[in-house]
């Protein structure tokens, strides 16, 4: 945002005046989600091309541990800045080798798996909590002030799993 503002000659003080309240709102909304998400292990299967930015957000802002981040196609030059913000040693995978990916999910037993609809129900039947990746494409998340709403999508899956465990 600041790069675009600079290119259009917008003063840094004006950028801060507009963005600081939005960032503050997003941080306040994230606080209760961090309680649910922090320390939870996350496995992202390739589906939407959003996996790397989501992994960065969930790791840095929500405290989740990344088991593996899969993406259908990985353009390392395009994603270089996002990849640099992932924790050192994060396992990245590219492409669709579903059987091998499912083997790694089952071996890792993560707290949450982000995957396509076709894999979610079978994984849920095996006792794994899932989040449908397609839901993220259609969710109205537009900017730092809605970070809490984005984190809530993941926290909801874990809370649902906890409720079902006690039923």
Written overview of the protein:
With 167 residues, the protein is α/β, with parallel strands linked by helices. It has a single domain (42-166), classed as 3-Layer(aba) Sandwich (Rossmann fold). It is built from 8 helices and 5 strands. It has a 5-stranded parallel β-sheet with strand order 3-2-1-4-5, sandwiched between helices. Strand 2, helix 4 (80-84) and strand 3 form a beta-alpha-beta unit. It is globular and about 55 Å long. 28% of the residues are buried. The mean pLDDT is 92.
How are the elements arranged and paired?
Layout: H1 2-7, H2 12-37, E1 41-44, H3 51-60, E2 65-71, H4 80-84, E3 92-94, H5 98-108, E4 112-115, H6 117-125, E5 130-132, H7 133-138, H8 147-166
Parallel strand pairs: 1-2, 1-4, 2-3, 4-5
Helix pairs in contact: 2-8
In short:
This protein has 167 residues and is α/β, with parallel strands linked by helices. The protein has helices spanning 2-7, 12-37, 51-60, 80-84, 98-108, 117-125, 133-138, 147-166, and strands spanning 41-44, 65-71, 92-94, 112-115, 130-132.
Sheet-strand content, in percent, reads 5-15%
Overall average residue pLDDT: 92
Structural class designation: alpha/beta
Largest sheet descriptor: 5 strands, parallel
At the first level of CATH, what is the class? Alpha Beta
In CATH, the homologous superfamily goes by the name Nitrogenase molybdenum iron protein domain
Oligomer, anyone?
single chain
Q: What's the total number of strands?
A: 5
What would you say the CATH architecture is? Answer: 3-Layer(aba) Sandwich
- C-alpha end-to-end distance: 46 Å
Q: How many domains, in number, for the residues?
A: 1
Uncertain ranges: none
Annotated CATH topology: Rossmann fold
- Please give the count of helices: 8
Rg (CA only): 17 Å
Shape: globular
Assign a percent range to the helix content.
55-70%
Q: Reading side by side through the largest sheet, how are the strands ordered?
A: 3-2-1-4-5
Order of helices and strands: HHEHEHEHEHEHH
């Amino acid at each position: 945002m600041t790069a675009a503002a600079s290119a259009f000659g917008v003063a840094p003080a004006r950028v801060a005046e507009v963005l600081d309240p939005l960032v503050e709102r997003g941080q306040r909304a994230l606080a209760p989600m961090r309680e649910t998400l922090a320390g939870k292990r996350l496995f992202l299967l390739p589906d939407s091309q959003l996996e790397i930015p989501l992994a960065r957000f969930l790791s840095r802002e929500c405290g989740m541990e990344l088991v593996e981040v899969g993406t259908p196609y990985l353009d390392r030059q395009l994603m270089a800045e996002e990849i640099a913000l992932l924790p050192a040693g994060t396992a990245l995978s590219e492409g669709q080798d579903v059987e091998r990916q499912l083997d790694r999910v089952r071996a890792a037993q993560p707290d949450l798996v982000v995957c396509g609809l076709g894999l979610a129900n079978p994984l849920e039947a095996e006792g794994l909590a899932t989040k449908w990746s397609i839901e993220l494409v259609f969710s109205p998340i537009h900017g730092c002030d809605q970070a809490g709403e984005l984190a809530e999508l993941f926290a909801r899956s874990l809370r649902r799993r906890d409720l079902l465990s006690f039923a």
